[in-house]
Amino acid sequence: MTRTMTIKQALNEALKEEFRRDETVIIMGCDVGVRGNPFGITLGLYDEFGPERVRDTPISEAAIVGACLGAAATGSRPIGEILFSDWITIGMDQLVNQIAKIRYMFGGKINVPLVIRAPVGAGGGQAAQHSQSFEAWFSHVPGLQVVMPITPYDVKGLLKTAIRSNDPVLFFEHKRGYEIRGEVPEEDYTIPFGEAVVRREGADVTIVAISIMVHKALAAAESLNQMGIKCEVIDPRTIYPFDYDTVLQSLDKTHRLIVTHESNRRSGIGAEIVSQVVERGFDLLDDHPVIVAGLDVPMPYNRQLEAMVIPSEEKIKNAVLKLMD
Amino acid sequence: MAKTSFVTMEETLAAIEDYKREIMQPLTAPEGLSGDQILKMYRRMALIREFDTSVKGLWKQNYIYGLAHSYVCAEAIGVGACAALRDSDFITSTHRGHGHTIAKGGDVKKMMAELMGKYDGYCLGKGGSMHIAAVDEGMLGATGIVGSGMPIAVGAALSSKVLGKDNVVVCFHGDGGTNQGVWHESINLAATWDLPVIFLCENNQWAISLPYKKASKNPRVSDRAIGYGIPGVTVDGFNVFAVYNAVAKAVERARSGNGPTLIEAKYYRYIGHFVADDERYRDMATNAPWTAFDPVERMCRFLVENGGFSEEQVQAVYESAKQEVLDAIEYAKTAPEPPLSSLYDGIYSPEFMEILKSRGEYVL
Description:
- The complex is a heterodimer.
- Helices cover 38% and strands 21% of the residues of chain A.
- Chain A is an alpha/beta fold.
- In chain A, α1 (7-21) runs parallel beside α7 and α9 (244-254) packs across α10.
- Chain B has a single domain (9-358), classed as Thiamin diphosphate (ThDP)-binding fold, Pyr/PP domains (Rossmann fold), CATH 3.40.50.970.
- Chain B is built from 13 helices and seven strands.
- The mean pLDDT of chain B is 96.
- The A-B interface holds A 30-31, 33-36, 38, 43, 46-47, 56-63, 86-87, 90, 124-130, 295-298, 300-305, 308-309 and B 2-6, 65-67, 117-118, 123, 125-128, 130-131, 143-147, 176-177, 179-182, 207-210, 214-216, 280-281, 337-338, 340, 342-344, 347, 362.
């Protein structure tokens, strides 16, 4: 049986089910308890599982992230929540120098089953310090896993996998995506990391789209379809590990590649994806790959300037048309 | 409201009794402040009240984009502190920065234009409410990251010392910020180097949904000063003169080279955290008893009852502030949008931007 629900509800359900399944699962962060998180993701957890396992914290990101590590290393399965992913920077030492490396440095003797959840993404005038997506930073650090799903089915299955994983996971939720609806099965399921999904099939161009860009790419593909151009849209779902096989299989058919992400272009994840594809499948390409990404500027507050920075359906469409020209 | 709330009405009434007994101070005009100066302080409080009261409606009508945090009920702190400063002194701010900007002498027209994302705004429409700054007035900017103003204030104080100036810096921050690591690092550094900075904690007792007593074992922020070897004091944050006196004393100490002070101005945020806060984390009925300490009303009563002003005089001051805000709103509504060509301005210095553009970067 399946039901239709929002991403927000699917996340909430995944959390509750994992809390019931495994009593070592705990969550801590600002406003996760009584308030149920600003977006309502953790609503009901405090009441059902109590203040021992559902912990409202002071505004202390470094301590939240680091305490997750200490708890993970000693038998708990902590979920740390950062209110906006921009502030993950405050916990960077613990994430980059400790969490990512501790298993390796200590000869593989420490398990690090922790998840850091954080909303990413721009839009709505939240300006320079509440709009960023740092998937490329964390993908760069060996030892971390980076997950960025954007359908209710995927967020639920992947969050469960993340919680059950024995390695640290950064789980990024797009804050403009919480109300996206989709079908979710009633029964328990997980989704393995590193498996992309082909969201739409097409023979002309492959569009690899990250997070919220999946929906913009699908809209662009629909519009291009009416012009006779068939786009294949791939949602990698996880940034590391990344499913290059699905992308290469698609390119074997389309021979043209567009990668799109909302975060700014310079040294972004698109650059890594393109370089890997070129190295692994240069002969599959008929044209140079194209990246459609955010502009390299701090997010401006003004509505019109903001709209220039965030990549749109229109920009994807134009990139496809130029490539097909 | 969630099934579980942190604060009951009984606890609220007990907290109010504690406030009255331990924190509340009578409004008494400080020596050395003229009637004009006091009236000017009241006017700035009125400006803040009117400005931030209007913001919510403008946000709902979509004139203001993004997020906005109101300084209503904190007016006494910003105004009391800045009245003890010179124009050449600096302040750092928080996400709740409108009040600080007005208190330091900011122009409400440029502020409102900024909140509406206009080119005439203080930040050319790029910052908005959460990143409002009035650098020429010594207001070094609001920030979206809790606690992040602390080391910036320390650096501004360091400049003052290194450059041989006698500026001081007031670092406004909230109780939420006190549990960031950088809060401790900053105070320790400033104390060790005897820097001319005043750490002014606006303790509104809530970090969004978390009461301070659930965030810290010792609810008295000023006690922490002991650990850094500097003076610490808690004052009535609803009382503009109590804040003024404490800051004036700390400024004197800082300017004479004796280093920082930690001041905790204790009040209570009886309004939502930000424009869209549904306050589901608390029983809204518990807000009402705190409104009895409304700092603007308290100041108004003082002026009439003890300040030697007539009710008409005081009312006229308030009305003129209200009109100034109304004028600012009208001005901002019709002010021009930033040109799209301004998108990249200010990422780097103008001279470096020229070099980058000549290399084909940042060309629209």
